[in-house]
Amino acid sequence: MRVLALLDGTQADPDSPLIRVDDLGLMRGDGVFETILVVDGKPRELGPHLDRLARSAAMLDLPDPDRAGFERAVDVVLGNWTGGREIALKLVMTRGVEGGDGTPTAFALGMDISPKVLTQRAEGLAAVTLDRGIEPGLMERAPWLLLSAKSLSYAVNMAALREAERRGASEVVFTTSSGSVLEGPTSTVVVARGRTLTTPPSELGILPGTTQAALFRAASRAGWQVEVAPIEVDELYVADAVVLASSVRKLTRVHTLDGKSLPDSTAVHAELAGLYESEY
């Protein structure tokens, strides 16, 4: 099922043409987006997602997103959803048509969550490490690379996932050339060691994670230590748990990395998943 809404509060037919062929989001990936998990009609972290959408738009020199318009569109999607209790809700804004008046193209689209994601949530997944070609300080030296923006330019991320499949895995942990952990193509990496949770610093060019932030809030209240600090790849193989956090996948444990079985993290993952759910 899909429900499509525009920022003026009207519902559109997702099977009818909407995007022009000369839209810069289509032609050049020139735009930004967010994906939000909705459970039982309630969007999770809607405010932080809208904040991040605005941050990404600013990095691309796009107009400030119409926050009220996106909120209207979200209400239309939720008010017309008749499918399952969980929705993947995408908010999209492009630079508009090439040579146009600068009016962005923007919409909200509610979709079913794929069975593959639901299976990975329950069973965990195998991942591989891949070099992203990023080194510390690059984001500061070259802001035009948009390293921490959630832009529509996802070709590299999708190519990495196809490479993972060629290697017999389904996910990727990006690394620097010197062996530091970055993030997944569509997720934040969280490592559990003892009663400490660690995620890499955004200064490396990592997209700040809304799901990771929610987990850290809940874990901190439950007595866990939480930190943002560098993680070396070698640390992943001996950690109590390696988790990929994202809105739709929630918290998914990595059970195999680069063909090596990781320590059994079933119990740790279950505790962390419970903490995350306690936020809602």
Automatic annotation (TrEMBL):
Q: Which UniProt keywords apply?
A: Lyase
The entry's cellular-component GO terms read: cytosol
Taxonomically, which superkingdom? Bacteria
- The answer on whether this UniProt entry bears the keyword Lyase reads yes
GO BP, one annotated term: carboxylic acid biosynthetic process
Output the InterPro entries linked to this UniProt entry: Aminotrans_IV, Aminotransferase-like, BCAT-like_C, BCAT-like_N, Class-IV_PLP-Dep_Aminotrnsfr
UniProt GO molecular function: lyase activity
Q: Write one Pfam family the protein is assigned to.
A: Aminotran_4
- Family statement drawn from the similarity comment of this UniProt entry: Belongs to the class-IV pyridoxal-phosphate-dependent aminotransferase family.
In terms of PANTHER family, this protein maps to: AMINO-ACID AMINOTRANSFERASE (PTHR42743), AMINODEOXYCHORISMATE LYASE (PTHR42743:SF11)
Protein's UniProt name: 4-amino-4-deoxychorismate lyase
